Amino acid sequence: MPRPTVARIHLDAIRHNYRLACGLAGQAQAMAVIKADGYGHGIGPVASALAGEARRYAVACIEEATRIRAEGLSQPVVLLQGVHEAADLPTCNEQGFEPVIHSPRQLAWLKEKSEAAPRFWLKVNTGMNRLGFRPHELTSVVDQLANTGCQARLLGFVTHFACADHTEHPMTAEQTRLFEQATAPWPALMRSVGNSAAHFREGQTLFDWSRPGIMLYGGSPLESRTGLDLGLMPAMTLEAPLIATRILQPGESVGYGATWTAEHQTRMGMVAIGYGDGYPRHAGTGTPAAINGQRVRLLGRVSMDMLAVDLTQAPAAGEGDTVELWGPTVSVDEVAMHAGTIGYELLTGVTARVPRIYQ
Asked: Quick check: is 256 catalytic?
């Protein structure tokens, strides 16, 4: 019998969160961002769960888009990194994939494959400084597209916000202004801004298409707020069995490095999950978990296959009980805060050793 350490994926929660994103997007439509294996939830099941609602998907790369087609789904799929070689462009054209073109190299590939060019977007670098053309370069870029016969395949423009997770940060307004100004000469083309965080920024325009990602899975895109605070439903419950209990006497420690020592008699338990499963190693003493709806705390260091919890607040807990590492009682965002990271990393980091069970 396999170890009952599993990630339960709640597809209704994903649909709820997508509908919330649509409501917050106002006049814009929301393309569902399901890259990184659906943020660790399974790209195929997530895409299928949203098939009746999402009119566009967004992923990072062509291999992710291909997995959506393997589910029998026909919606356009935006490739946020574009393509990685010219030979992929005809495939995009055949499959309805829409690469985001962000570099002179990719422009050259479009010229090379102009007869089989797919519909595509242009990335505008408004300050994130990862990918994209600077605003003043757009006119020249569009002229190049006209000269190669590819301008008719241009769908529109995208940009990405650097600081939208800080709702009052002035950079988001400045990026919005630059993007609107840069794309104004082409009013008939579509525009897309708006990661999850921008949906919660009061008065933020999202133009034609927003791109909700982490919020679809119940994680918070905002600093110091949990998904539950924002009305989101957790889409993953990570759980593992309690496999041993013992009573530690004052002065006894637990785990590698003996980083936690009992000050008084303490009943503790061992849970069959660790960093080999994607649980964060840096989540130390005090990180919350839950047993039968009762919150408990971690003790000491997380091992590869196990971690320890304090059972003081769950006196009835016994071997075989299920421990929630994150889910409806303990937000993944809380665990991330204790581990010094973000919920995105935790959700995408759950390893293949943990079976996904779809509900």
From this structure: yes
> Over its length of 359 residues, how does the chain's per-residue pLDDT go in tens digits?
899 999 999 999 999 999 999 999 999 999 999 999 999 999 999 999 999 999 999 999 999 999 999 999 999 999 999 999 999 999 999 999 999 999 999 999 999 999 999 999 999 999 999 999 999 999 999 999 999 999 999 999 999 999 999 988 999 999 999 999 999 999 999 999 999 999 999 999 999 999 999 999 999 999 889 999 999 999 999 999 999 999 999 999 999 999 999 999 999 999 999 999 999 999 999 999 999 999 999 999 999 999 999 999 999 999 999 999 999 999 999 999 999 999 999 999 999 999 999 99
Q: Residue 47, class by beta-carbon neighbours within 10 Å (0-12 exposed, 13-18 middle, 19+ buried)?
A: buried
Same domain as 335, residue 240: yes
Q: Which residues are annotated binding-site positions for substrate?
A: 130, 304
User: Torsions phi, psi of 154, nearest 5?
Assistant: -75, 120
Instruction: Provide the domain count of the chain.
Output: 2
Specify if 16 maps to a domain. yes
Flag whether 229 is in a domain: no
**Token representation of residue 156:** 């529109």
Q: Which of 35, 57, 123, 275 is catalytic?
A: 35
Active-site hit among 39, 113, 256, 344: 256
Residue 286 lies in domain: 236-358
CATH number at residue 105: 3.20.20.10
Q: What is the pTM of this model?
A: 0.96
Q: Name the phi and psi angles at 281, rounded to 5.
A: -65, -30
Residues 163, 277 share a domain: no
Whether 116 and 259 map to the same domain: the answer is no
